[in-house]
Amino acid sequence: MRNGLWLVFLVICMCTHLNAKTLEEWAKTFEPSALIYEERMKELKWFRDVSKGLAKKLDGKTIRSAAEHIKTHFYERDVLSEAFFDITGIRVKHNIIGEGPVVKEIMTQLRTGRVIEHIYVNDADLIGTHLRYQGVVNLSEYIKGEGKKYTNPYLDLEDWLNLEFGQDYSGNQLQLPDQQFSNLYWFRYDWFTDPKNQADFKQQFGYELGVPINWAAYEDIAEFFTGRKQKNPDGSTVTAYGHLDYLKPSPSLGWRFTDAWLSIAGVGDKGLPNGIPVDEWGIRVENRVPVGSMVERGGAMNSPAAVYALSKFMEWIKFAPPEAKELEWHTAGPRAAKGDIAQRIFQYITWLSTDAFHQKGSPVVGKDGNPVWRVAPTPHGRYWDKGMKVGYQDAGSWTIPMSVRDSYRAAAWLWAQFASSKTVSLKKFLVGGTPVRKSTINHPYIDNNIKKWAGLIEFYRSPAEKNGLTVAPMYLIMHSL
C-alpha cells in the first residue's frame, strides 16, 4: 500500500514537470510586451541561467511572498509564480491576504526577526516606518554588493514610474514598486454629455456641466444627479446617486483620510511630495521630526481646513446610496459599475480593472465595448492653493526584511525583479490595471487601445500625475503628538 502511494506521488510529480512550459512558450505568453520576442528571450534566459546554482542551494524549498487581494497580485500568483518556477526552478508561494494582514505580518517580522514571509508587496507609504526601524534590505546597497550577481542586467530602474516612492532621504531604494495606483475623480461621461442633463444643469446652477475643479462644483453635481432618472447603455433606467463613498468602521476608513483627503481640502502647506513645514496630515515637521499636530502646536489637524474636510465627507453621504454606511474600500471600489452612480471624488484605480467596468453588456460600457465613464484629476477643496498636493498615489512595493538572508534573500530578489520585469509588466497591467513602468504606459499597444482606460493613461502621461505625487512623510523619529 505504501509503495503504491509513493508511485502515485511520483507520477503526479512527473506530470507536473511534463506540463511545464518552455522558455520559448513563456516568451510568447507575455505578448504584448515592452520587449520584442528576442529581447524577452534574453531576459528570460538570464533568469534561467542565474538561478541554476541558487535552486540547488534551496533544494526544493519554497520562497514565500505576501500581497493584498487585488487583481494584479492574483495574476502574479496564478501565472507569474508558475512561469518563475518553470524558468528558474525556484518555487514561490505568493500569499494573497488583505492589506491589514500584510502590514501586521511585516511589522511582526520587523519587531521579532522571525521570518514569516521572505518578501512582501508592501505599500510605499510605509517608507517612514522602514526608515525608523532600519529593518528592510537597502536594495541600492544590495545590488552593488551581495546581490550584484542576482540583479537583472535588463532591470532598467529609469523605466519605473515614481521610483522615489520607495527611497530614503539619500535616494537609496528600500522598496521596489510592483504596482502603482492613484486615487482619481470618476464620472459618467455619457450622462455629463447628455444634452438634456446639460441644459437642466445650466438652468439650475447657471454654469456648464463638466468635470469639477473644486468641491463646490462637485457638490452641485451631486445634488443635481441625486434622485434623477438616467439611462444606461444596457437599456436599464436607474435612479441616480450623485456621490459614492464608504463609512464602515475598518482600517480602510482611516486611510480614507490619510490618503491625502485633508491636503485635497487645503490642510497643510505648499510642497511636493509633502507640505513644508506642515504636511498633508496636518503635522508640523522641523528637521524631519514631527513636533505638533494641533493648531496650538503649529500643526493643522484641527484647523478650519481640516474641519471643513471632515464636514464635507459627512455632508455628502446624503447624495450616496444607503449601503455606503456598510461599505469598505474594497466593496466600494467596484460599486459604481452597477450603473447608478454619477460621480465619485475618491476612486482608487485599483478597482477599475474589475470586469464589470469593461465587459460588454455592463451598464457602464457602451455598445462599442468602450467605457462610458472617465477619470480625471481630483477636485480640490476651498482652502487648497496652487502648490499643494491634489490627489493621491501610492505603490505596492517589493520589500525584503533584513531577517531574510543568503539564498532566500537572493531568490526573493529574483522573484521581485521577474514579477516587475519589462517582459511581463505590460501584460500584467492589461490584467490588473496598475502600471509600474513608463514603457508600459507609452507602449504602442496602449496608444491603439487607449479608450479602454477612459482617461487613466492620459493622467499618467500628464503633469497632473506629479501633482498627486505622494507617500507618507518619512519621519525618522515619531514624538508623542
Automatic annotation (TrEMBL):
Keywords: Signal, Sugar transport, Transport. The keyword Amino-acid biosynthesis does not apply. Gene3D superfamilies: Periplasmic binding protein-like II. The keyword Acetylation does not apply. Coiled coil: none annotated. Residues 1-20 form the signal peptide. This is Multiple sugar transport system substrate-binding protein. The lineage of its organism: Bacteria, Pseudomonadati, Thermodesulfobacteriota, Desulfobacteria, Desulfobacterales. It comes from Candidatus Magnetoglobus multicellularis str. Araruama.
